[in-house]
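Posting here for the record, re: dioxothiomolybdenum(VI) ion.
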Amino acid sequence: MKSILHEGWSFEGIVTGSQQSGMGKRNGGVGESIIKIDAAPKARGEGIYPQDFNLEGQLYASVVWSQYPHAKVCSIDITKAAAYPGVVKVLTAGDVPENSYGINFPDQSVFVVAGDKVRSVADRIAMVVAETHEAAREACGLVEVKYELLPVVSDPREAMKDGSILIHPERGDTNIIDKIKIRRGDIQTGFEEADVVVESYYTTQAQEHAYMQPDAGVGYIDDKGRVTVIVATQAPHDDIPKIARILQVEEKDVHLVVPAVGGAFGGREDMQTHHLLAVAAFVLRRPVKLVFSREETTMFTGHRHPFYMRCKSGATREGMLTAVEVEMIADAGAYISSSIWMLNNATSNAAGPYKVPNAKIDSCAVYTNNVMNMAMRGFGAPQAAFAYEMQMNKLAVALGMDPVEIRMKNLLEDGDICLTGKPMPEGVGVKETLKEVALKAGWKQNGTHWEAPQVPVSISPEKRIGLGLSTSYKNVGFSFGMDDYSKAIVELYLQESGQIDRAVVKCGASDLGMGAQTALAQIAAEILDLNVTKISVPVLDTADVPYAGSSSASRQTYTSGNAVYGACQDAVKKLQQTLRDETGELKIIGEYEFHTSAVRPTSYYAPETGECEPHVSYGYTSQAVLLEVDVETGETKILKLWTAQDCGKMIDPAMVNGQVAGAVHMGVGYGLMEEFIQHEGVPQTRGFSQYMFPTVLDMPEEMVSINVEVPDPTGPFGAKGVAEMPLLPTAPAIMAAIHQATGVWIDTLPATAERVWSRLNEKEKSQE
Ligand code: MOS
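Prediction output follows.
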């Protein structure tokens, strides 16, 4: 089966368009902008994504989804479906050795068991496997299910109340999955010391990952008898124990092959098709292909958690924060997925990148009958950032103080104590990002005093113009006591002279399209002093490359970058020894396993105070938005956006800018239009025709991006991470601009034309 896969990636031809940012030679190493290792085959449209694979004797699968968000399943009758021409097997719970699973806690079922209940419309009743895709689809409609409807709980604020209908009665007498609290200083004294206090209630929406490549893959038994899944995943090695548990086989009998991933954004952190393909191949011993339609990918895979947040912040006349109180409720949907870890992250971020002497934070994640929510770019931080930045902008207005000035007074620096009581690790560049953005957007600095530029006057009376600003931060890597690690192997192939001829970098870091494999090759090029075109990366097969953890938490450049760095150093050391020994060895293998616990151990929240060493490292972003609001229609148009980010040393500036543009795109969508809508647990958004994300016409007419490189000494060459951070400040900066233009605050995301228009009309009514 190996022959159906490409051998791996190598750079095609010399790196053109390379721009140095000051490291060494022009060999495509660290600091140069080069053409991505996978760019050419992707541009040529070569069939390299999981759904492009077709194996001999392949069958086709199609899923029977629940018809209701909450119902008892009295019976499942597959007789008619099984008899449909072309159908090979209708898989149900009885075919699965261990039916329960979950990324963090096994509260999901591969297939619903008759007698149990469905908890969301994304629950699976069965999967039809047939000779053709059409037959599989048709037969799905013939599976007969008798339901007894149960009341639906779709609002976590209702679901968390005592006496609510329970989604998982087997898990105890509450729908609350987890609660966290942070108590810092004395909150009462903090508010007494404040000259101004602002209080607001914020809600954020479910956002769809909307990756271009739908969930898809092929499962088969390989020539060594192993269950093999070709699939797009963020965490191939982490999927193995989950699949092995479901199949009740040993982990060595399962492997995943990741030929290419067409976007993920957190959405491929959970298994979507992986386990279904594994079960089908395991039971049928034949290759099985499963491709979700766009509707299935949109409706039945998770989204960004909606949050409900009550915030109260106090500051002195001079603009110093005295107290921050936050209550956050996250809608987990029907299953836990990564909600507990996401809540950990959101909670530690609740007060923003600011020095807060007194804080009281209470957060919880709650089961509902909505489709399970899951990891999405920012992982709880964008929701928190929306609230704390709205609060900062409201405080600035309440104090009559410039929004840059109030932030500069409170922003964290190296060694400052964070919300959970520990000093910030070296490399805090948040002030630098804010300064750069403010100066580029026209602010004037006079010592600690900042003055905003005059906003241009609109050419027509119904159009108003506003300028808004925001800042934020996000952790890099896995936090709260997890020992985040990654391993790399570097093979050097030598010429007769002992010179390095070429190198192979082996590391299980899944490249979701962001260029992880290119960045790792660049780090290797730099250390090996080898042109990057001499470096190749094999196709990601978990059986052939070492563990690198998930491509999430903006961590691969930092974590796997450190592993490749160490492996190359090891190889160079061995190379020198080999040359001295004159053994004539023609191949050298260097290896290294990087552990964050060795450089910056983290810890979990203390139960009463929440005190902990939360994160390993951070990245920072500040943004300013100039926009126009049509007060007759509520429509907005972003005229210009300035963004400055600190990701530490940029391994490849062009790829950093690609991440920034993508994150801003997602932030504009989050702020202005994207919303996955459910009514009583039933998706109303069924695909891309109803899910509004920004097109090129909705993007800022002009975008200025500035990179501030404040190194983290624990990162490879001082690199931190960039994938998530530039999404965070966009929505609150947009709201600040809308406020300056119109005088109204939009506290509910997204600021659609309808919502802006309604707020403007409410304001007019209240003035009549
Ligand atoms: Mo990402 S939200 O860290 O998978």
